[in-house]
Amino acid sequence: MLNIQEIRKDFPILHRKVNGKALIYFDNAATSQTPQQVIDVIVDYYTNYNANIHRGVHSLSQEATDAYEQARIKIQKHFNAKHSHEIIYTAGTTHGINLVANGFSSLLKKGDEIIVSALEHHSNIVPWQMLCERTGATLKVIPMNEKGELILSEFDGLLNEHTKLVFVNHISNALGTINPIEYIIEKAHKAGAAVLVDGAQSCPHLKPDVQALDVDFYVCSAHKICGPTGVGMLYGKEEWLKKLPPYQGGGEMIAEVSFEKTTYAGLPHKFEAGTPNISGGIAFGAALDYMNNLGFDAIAEYENELLVYATEQLEKIEGVKIYGTAKEKTSVISFNVNDIHPYDIGTILDKMGIAVRTGHHCAQPIMDFYKIPGTIRASFMFYNTKDEIDTFITALKKAVMMLS
Ligand SMILES: *Cc1c(COP(=O)(O)O)cnc(C)c1O
């Protein structure tokens, strides 16, 4: 059992006011809040050992390098990767996806096929469209049903000997659907295709085991797991990372450089050109420590309670329609009330100190599917409470009254 009141003390931002009201932060699917333990790690870095890594012989550089590489090992252990050099630091999920998409440019040819799901974030659609333009490959889409679940029988039908890659998010940021990635990975592998899973939305709620999943690539962002912005990771199986060409050229990613020829560094440095977000990487490790200390089973159980409670309360309000009612979902609720524009409700909620997301959530194809401009999205983390949900429901009723 989590002690939520104690946990909330770790998050300074949860104690501020917004528009004169105590902040209620329900926009966790966009970014999570940062505990003091992680903030301290960043402050400590800049206060005590800020230096560039992997180059200097001096002590500060050594300390920074050690801390950065230890964090990589923490990330490796967390995701149960076989080798630490299978963990590539990135600027976040979007960067990781682009790195893989770019690498596949040299591996694909006309007639090859890529499959994505209808539940994708824009960051998981656009890079593949660009890849298809560059290579002449074709993009296929796994359709979804009214509940916001992928239609797996249709997926089976899309797979064939031309399929080279399958891309799917583990959990949809717009609807909260947990996708059956085990099934997708197994089927894709049988067809000879590689699989990249976007874990941006799953990593805050569960602990993926990349070896058990047998996934080829897995990406996430630290800022959705209580870490800082601008850092994330790409896991890739060693054999795949060796096959992919480097993404960006620069310092740190080379073995030898001359004007005639440059040879690339080994993994993971081949993909880590330039000075990285050093404090961010170290803080990413600290964020995983923080979450693991709470325990992912306890987190999932509590967040599910919040989801069930909030769903019940919302359904009692006349005119509320919830989008995304998959059997397997996390603590994300997308909804509208009658035909009130989500933006208008979001604005009034903000006046009452409540942060929710409104709009298309970078997933316009999903909104097109439901024929709506957008939704209001409330997304919960382990530091949210039922009391906050009660306040939110009261505020929402007030907003609806004002706008009807
Ligand atoms: C947030 C998110 C992204 C993008 O993450 P960035 O940190 O902005 O790169 C991609 N996919 C999903 C499912 C997300 O929730």
TrEMBL record:
InterPro entries assigned to the protein according to its UniProt record, in alphabetical order: Aminotrans_V_dom, Aminotrans_V_PyrdxlP_BS, Cys_dSase_SufS, Cysteine_dSase, PyrdxlP-dep_Trfase, PyrdxlP-dep_Trfase_major, PyrdxlP-dep_Trfase_small
Molecular-function GO term, any one: lyase activity
Cofactor: pyridoxal 5'-phosphate
GO terms of biological process kind: cysteine metabolic process
Domain of life: Bacteria
Top-level EC class: transferase
Enzyme Commission code(s) on record: 2.8.1.7
Aminotransferase class V domain sequence ranges: 24-392
Gene3D superfamilies on file: Aspartate Aminotransferase, domain 1, Type I PLP-dependent aspartate aminotransferase-like (Major domain)
PROSITE patterns on file: AA_TRANSFER_CLASS_5
Catalytic activity, reaction form: (sulfur carrier)-H + L-cysteine = (sulfur carrier)-SH + L-alanine
Keywords for this protein: Lyase, Pyridoxal phosphate, Transferase
Coiled-coil ranges per UniProt: none
PANTHER family (alphabetical): CYSTEINE DESULFURASE (PTHR43586), CYSTEINE DESULFURASE 1, CHLOROPLASTIC (PTHR43586:SF8)
Family recorded in the similarity comment: Belongs to the class-V pyridoxal-phosphate-dependent aminotransferase family. Csd subfamily.
UniProt function note: Catalyzes the removal of elemental sulfur and selenium atoms from L-cysteine, L-cystine, L-selenocysteine, and L-selenocystine to produce L-alanine.
NCBIfam families according to UniProt: sufS
Protein name (record): Cysteine desulfurase
Organism listed in the record: Winogradskyella epiphytica
